[in-house]
Amino acid sequence: MKIRYGGDYNPEQWPKDVWEEDHRLFDAAHIDTLTVGVFTWALTQPGPDVYDFSTLDAIIERAAAAGRRICLATGTGAHPAWMARAHPSVTRTDFEGRKHRFGQRHNSCPSSPDFRRFSVEVARRIARRYAGNPAIVAWHVGNEYGGACYCDLCAAGFREWLRARYGSLSALNAAWYTTFWSHTFTDWDEIEPPSALTEHWRGPDHTAFQGITLDYLRFMSDAMLANYRDEKAAIRQSDPDTPVTTNFMGLYRPIDYHRWAADLDFVSWDNYPPDDRSAARMALAHDLMRGLKGGQPFWLMEQTPSVTACRDVNPLKRPGVMRLWSWQAVAHGADAVLFFQMRAGRGASEKYHGAVIGHSGRSDTRVFREVADLGAELSALGPVTLGARTPARVALLFDWDSWWALEISDGPTRLVRYLDVVTAYHRALWQLGADLDVIPVTAPLDDYDVVVAPALHMIKNGLADRLAAVAFRGGTVLTTFLSGRVDEDDNAFRTEPLSPLLGIRVDEWDAREASYVNPVTINGSTFESRLLFELVIPEGADVVGTYRTDFYAGTAAVTRNEWGAGHAWYVGAALDDAGVSAVIREVLSRHGLLGPCADLPDVETAVRVTPDGDRLLFVLNHGAAPVELPPACAGVDLLSGHPVRTLGPNGVAIYSISASPGVSSAWKTATASPPGPAITQM
């Protein structure tokens, strides 16, 4: 047993003599797991009533003969050309109202009966043929679900979804506030999908009726989930036990992954950061993926070993970065480290995408050597980290409804983006070494001492009371500007539900261009704030930070309210990173939750607790220079077997805390919450 290592393999693109060379190189790189069949639908079903499994048979047989394990895809990530020609309903209609023809991928209408019928049948036949094969350790449904459709079939599906949600037109009209602009609906068939032809102008985020658009975002996420459920049910007819998943895309706005989580047996996701300076952003995405199923470990289903090929600029991973980022995934909960792709394709849009094996098929390239070295390291480590959980006492709330509602709102500002705010607060927690869970607003909060809820725009499901309970028992709650403004229908509250807990009210706000700065002074230090400045009126809360300029100079920008035995913080301005860090440091310090390397800005720490109770401390240096580690971050490295006191650039060390004499008893105590049950190892 060990961390699974390998990735997306597409041998159907090459002659079979290349396959033999591939497997020889896989052996050299310690590759043990292959994801196959992701885009084979046109091969396995070349016609409406024709199925040909010869290619997939050969791929699976060759991998199994080499002793490798297989994550077998249903191949439904892109439909075949014959299907679009014979059944035009399977292609999407876009936001502008254009009916698409065959081409690209993510081009299947989730509401098309033809698409659903064919996708279910191919999944059923694949599962029937390969169920029971001991090489298959997981099923992979679809691929990177995404996109949206606005066709008549989706319009009909949307109306049925609305009937189920609201029950009556009167309830729907109330939720959507349709007395505005004479929009009252008197028949379900009057309702149109919100698009460029109906409620929108200047793109998908500019809508006349936020309630309609918000519900269509919810519906489309559910419609694609129905496709996934259809295929999973077809697989279960032949295989009741092997885990089923699909590959998520991390911080991806169009699909509410919280709504999907229960239907995945384990979470997997594809990590393609926008640049090579995104360590904090990747940490947020890892934490979000781990939090989808209550802390259960996940698979890193895809990452590039070197470069991507889908952006205007595609920076190369510098020496050591692939290893560092792979171990970062493990530190945050990954039980598999997989790549896209195993061998570089020779044509089409991904021919320049990075691969373990390049076009030349050489084993002496830098990338291949680094992949092989990491494979050897993972093999030597064995099962040490498998099933380990994060013992978090800090929670960060993440909410797709708030994300959608905030960014389709026509006020107070278009410049504040939900993900920017969440990332800023997560980054501060990450840099200060807090082990944290990123969780949905519906998750229990009983086990957390600190709950951070940035830009919590929408309040639903009794959340205000549950946050108040955290503070009342002695915890700390922190939220920010634009929080607690709307209900689940995106209608403004008459009385904001978080006001009693926070001890404030907000009557006015000032939104400015990005170049405008209003400094905020917090405990004697001054920080920049931009974009949005709320005029906070304390009603019992203590003022911690004040504005420096404009007519509201000297008024509250940051407050702290006593509530029971704990505190509730409110940050009413979009502080810069230093300001956010100052506030978060004070919150964490109250609970003794600063990490052991909190004062080393480029050093990341994370703790995982194994099913046997062993505690593992990961230390990662994201900086370009060596770092002298404090005693709490030094010890005998499980990877090298040697004591580590200095960690080089892109360096990684893993310690068994109980065996590391340099780790203080205070640090052990601060992270000593018990782990939950581990994911079943496959």
UniProtKB/TrEMBL annotation:
What top-level class of enzyme does the UniProt entry assign?
Answer: hydrolase
Pfam families assigned: Glyco_hydro_42 (PF02449), Glyco_hydro_42C (PF08533), Glyco_hydro_42M (PF08532)
Query: What molecular functions are annotated in GO for this chain?
Result: beta-galactosidase activity
The answer, when asked if Hydrolase is one of the entry's keywords, is: yes
Quickly give the catalysed reaction.
Answer: Hydrolysis of terminal non-reducing beta-D-galactose residues in beta-D-galactosides
> Does Cell inner membrane appear among the keywords?
no
Residues in Glycoside hydrolase family 42 N-terminal domain copies: 8-380
Family, according to the entry, reads as follows: Belongs to the glycosyl hydrolase 42 family.
Question: Mind telling me what this protein is named?
Answer: Beta-galactosidase
**Species name:** Actinoplanes sichuanensis
